[in-house]
Amino acid sequence: MRADGPAIVVSDIRKSYGDLRAVDGVSFTVAEGEFFGLLGPNGAGKSTTLEIIEGLRKPDSGSVRILGESPWPRNPALLPKMGVQLQASSFFERLTSKEQLQTFGSLYGVSRAAAVDMLELVGLTDKADVQENNLSGGQRQRLSIACALAHDPEIVFLDEPTAALDPQARRNLWDVLRAIQARGKTIVYTTHHLDEAEILCDRVAVVDKGRVMAMGAPAWLVRKLDAQTQVIVEHGTVTVEIARNLPGADKVIDDGVSVIIATNDAGLTIKALGELDALNKAQVRTATLEDVFLHLTGRAYRE
């Protein structure tokens, strides 16, 4: 019996491949029932960090505790308590959705009926008798998550579960992830979609070059950035000269479609635009988690 405490404790883990420091002193904790996101650009060390936590890779140094136990060396006692969905999902050939789940469940001694219950959770009950290769991309992702949940684990690891999905399939999967957390599960996941991390996660860690650059609730990280608000008005509504002289206006950009006013006092600027009758179709854009991400990791594209 473990003492009460965090579901996951990661302490100064490091992993190098030759001269490349893939993970360089990462530390964080995840509370029971928390939805925790690992965010970062390509090559930031997210997947390696996740694989170390899952017990799939041995760290060069540092330690990980999952539910009070170490996942490395491979810990059979922890396996039934963890569900893992990797970036690339593999299924047994020629099996239906129901048969896939029953097969995965049987590896943990789960009854066939209990395993199939996961189909309802991920919204695939009507696809129970459909072979995996005939499912859509979004349905395959949901089946992959159902397989990770077939044995009812306490902690679920998801590595970019919404990658390559269309917007409708992504939002459908959000409902599945919310339903999983509502069942009391602890979720740790990686993603490149900052909008969904901002909506789904209780806390996130922004990782770059193998290090945690910032960590906290998305809303807290956004407030901490203290970024300017952008008031966007339709091109021709006001001139750049007028916009530059508005109260609160700090910087004005004319992109040919809109006049974008950066301001530290949006209320004052919007009030002035209203007095000029220039608020028709105006938009107000506040900082988002994406702004935090770009501020911390830079804007240069990475392969």
From TrEMBL:
Keywords: Antibiotic resistance, ATP-binding, Cell membrane, Membrane, Nucleotide-binding, Translocase, Transport. Gene3D superfamilies: P-loop containing nucleotide triphosphate hydrolases (3.40.50.300). It is found in: Cell membrane. GO terms for molecular function: ATP binding; ATP hydrolysis activity. Pfam families: ABC_tran (PF00005). It is a peripheral membrane protein. The keyword Magnesium does not apply. InterPro entries: AAA+_ATPase, ABC_transporter-like_ATP-bd, ABC_transporter-like_CS, ABC_transporter_ATP-binding, P-loop_NTPase. The keyword Transcription does not apply. One of its GO terms (biological process) is response to antibiotic. GO terms for cellular component: plasma membrane. Residues 8-234 form the ABC transporter domain. Belongs to the ABC transporter superfamily. This is ABC-2 type transport system ATP-binding protein. It comes from Umezawaea tangerina.
